[in-house]
Amino acid sequence: MYQPPFCVYGIRYFFFWSVNILLLASISSCGADYDTVIQGGRVMDPESGLDSLLNVGIREGQVSAISGDHLDGSEVIDATGLIVAPGFVDLHRHGQSERAYRLQAQDGVTTGLELEIGTPNAATWYSEREDGQLVNYGVSIGHVGVRARAMGDSVLGSGGITARQPASPDQIAETEKLIREGLAQGAIGVGFGSAYTPGATMAEIERMFSVAADLGVTAFIHMRGGLEGLDSTLTAARNVAASLHVVHANSSGGGDILEFLEMIRMAQDEGRDVTTEAYPYGASQTGIQSALFDDWESWDEERFGRHQWVRTGERLNRETFGKYREEGGSIIIHGRTEEMTLAAVTSPLTIVASDGGTGHPRGAGTFARILGRYVREQGALGLMDALARMTIRPTQRLEEFVPAMEKKGRIRVGSDADITVFDPETVIDRATYLEGSLTSDGIEYVLVNGIPVVYEGEIVEGVRPGKAIKAESN
After folding, report:
1. Per residue in 229-278, pLDDT tens?
2. Which domains does the chain have, with CATH numbers?
3. Which residues, 6+ apart, have CB-to-CB distance to 19 below 8 Å?
């Protein structure tokens, strides 16, 4: 286990615990040029195209040198045979708890943001994490929860009764007011789950898109209705000139994924600010009590068997589906083919985003799976392309209105030292649909703001270098 260095009588000692034996790992002068040096790794930076064996010097949480020359560091990480990449940036990370942050870090994620459903109260959300976390964190102000607040619902998530009800003009006005308040509190954009709020008309969604447009932020949406729903969502965003990010193209597009992606490409070709994402698994996850399943009693028997109860791993039938829907909880929905997944993750339109929490393997293994399965094993993606989808592209989606992101997602002098070091020959996900929290292999070192949070593949205990990521005050 990594232990931070300390100085005694002008000598700096580094200690590592391994099988309960205290080992003296290295001794160097306290006057070293850099706090940490990552030595001898293959440094890959998708923004600049840099791909070379180099040393990286880190001082006070930032990259201070990238050089082929020897760098003197108080701490030296030997990255021989490893890839040194910008820390992975996940725009769609529901897991915002201690347990989930640990899974993120061991999958190479240094910044995990909840931008789909978001939060009904940004000030409270940030204050609950203000003492620091393992990784960088941030959130959108969420239409689902804010709408429930405006309508007086005690359930602020996707299971509330008001999700099925139309809002009155006064309630819509109150929703808009609360969204503006959330953005003023630093929320990163506006999150939407129109699939979870069937009571919200497209006119209401369009009005809230206009709020995002007015304040210069992006709308992140889990849209409803397949291709028809995508068309109405794109139209609403176009009508008010809103910046739009459509989450998980793979699950929203399903069997129509090629047509789905083509519609987004056409919108981009028209000059519209529209982007999308994908995760590398064939099953999705959501709450069984949500409005998505209001028609469950009309399903044929075969459909129930596609659903898996997370707590036990059992596949459901009509009886157990009804039982658990009353109870409430998380289910995994199987059904997409590997061809659908491959089309989504290899499309030039998509960035990598996990949609991860806990209970589904995507919460623990999304990024390692891309690198291990789709880069190394299948050759379906080039390594630099895959890294771009994990680092600079999600960063660029945000940096125009989130100044903190201007120093994320790249390795260059002056950037934040959010760095992931992995073994390209062994990196792979281990999490499964039955054991969703197994940590990834091959992620050897992860630094957040210059501080190791993963060292030799293990979580570093007692450190909280992650910082709040907020938009500019609107």
Report:
1. 999 999 999 999 999 999 999 999 999 999 999 999 999 999 999 999 99
2. 6-86+412-459 (2.30.40.10), 88-407 (3.20.20.140)
3. none
